[in-house]
Specification:
Elements (H helix, E strand, L loop, with lengths): L1 H17 L5 E10 L2 E12 L2 E9 L5 E12 L2 E9 L5 E11 L2 E10 L4 E12 L2 E9 L5 E11 L2 E9 L5 E12 L2 E11 L2 E12 L70 E2 L2 E3 L2 E3 L2 E2 L1
Antiparallel strand pairs: 1-2, 1-14, 2-3, 3-4, 4-5, 5-6, 6-7, 7-8, 8-9, 9-10, 10-11, 11-12, 12-13, 13-14, 15-18, 16-17
């Protein structure tokens, strides 16, 4: 992993020499290894002093690794970068750094921090030796103290650039890589014949990069402005006063007729009425009840 990161960091240094010449580019490539085929793709665009990139590699068993980041020009010859790399297991590495260019040499330093808090540092440079001739050297120091050194050279002539390099670990093991890039037409660059030798095994790679203008975002024009003239409120006009000697009598208020709707008929169920049978009438003559006189009456 460290060697791969180191190679990627060196490629970023070379990119700084040419990023200003392109507005946007896309690429895709394939690596054929003893463990299967790996397919990758990436996209980058520049604008406003910054270049943003995103890419990913899919393995033969469905695993996906991604890398995103941004390089920003902070001053003439000064750049800063930051990004995130995520492996197929979901673990991520945060990387950032700074680059300074002067006198044909760009020097870079940075650090990487993993999900578990462990970190590694990088340090390197790229130098333009002559027209079309570049050399680079850098190193990565892992969290356990192991150091990996990388050196490479690039030579460009006509439409083709050839590059080769070697990575050497703390235990003396080496990884070599070589490849070429050719511009086959305006805005199209292909790489072929690239090889990386790891523990005696060879990895063959090839890719295509398409360079074009950055996509232009459509900004709709602002909506037309509608000007509405303010209407002054109406001024109440009092009726003219009556002429002298004339008494003004206000007309009577209109009569208000209120009509009510008759309520709907209510049905009342009939109920039986009890009529008591007549009883016989008896004439009672006047008489005394004790000391009380009761006159004659019907009972």
């Amino acid at each position: 992993m460290a060697s791969r990161t180191l190679i990627a960091a060196t490629g970023s240094l070379l990119l700084l020499f040419n990023a200003s010449a392109f507005a946007a580019w896309t690429g895709h490539g394939t690596a054929y290894t003893a463990h299967g085929t790996y397919n990758g793709a990436h996209y980058a665009s520049c604008g406003g002093g910054s270049c943003t990139h995103a890419g990913g590699v899919a393995g033969p068993y469905g695993g996906l690794a991604t890398n995103t980041g941004t390089v920003t020009r902070t001053a003439p010859g000064q750049f800063s970068n930051a990004g995130t790399a995520t492996g197929p297991n979901g673990r991520s590495v945060q990387h950032d750094g700074s680059t300074s260019c002067a006198g044909g040499t760009c020097s870079h330093s940075g650090d990487m921090t993993g999900s578990g808090g462990r970190s590694a540092t990088t340090d390197g440079s790229v130098t333009r030796e002559a027209p079309g001739q570049y050399t680079s050297s850098d190193s990565v120091t892992a969290a356990n103290g192991n150091t990996y050194n990388h050196s490479a050279s690039t030579a460009c002539a006509g439409n083709t650039c050839n590059r080769s390099g070697t990575v050497t670990g703390s235990n003396g093991g080496t990884v070599t890589h070589a490849g070429s890039a050719t511009q086959v037409s305006s805005g199209v660059v292909t790489t072929g014949g690239g090889t990386t030798v790891v523990h005696g095994g060879t990895v063959t790679t090839g890719s295509t990069v398409v360079v074009g203008a950055a996509p232009v975002a459509y900004v709709p024009p602002p909506p037309p402005v509608t000007v509405v003239a303010a209407v002054p409120p109406a001024t109440p006009v009092a009726p003219p006063p009556p002429p002298p000697g004339v008494v003004y009598v206000a007309p009577p208020a209109p009569a208000v007729v209120v009509t009510t709707k008759a309520p709907p008929p209510v049905y009342i169920a009939p109920r039986p009425v009890y009529v008591a049978a007549p009883r016989p009438v008896v004439w009672v003559p006047a008489h005394w009840v004790g000391r009380v006189y009761v006159p004659a009456h019907w009972a």
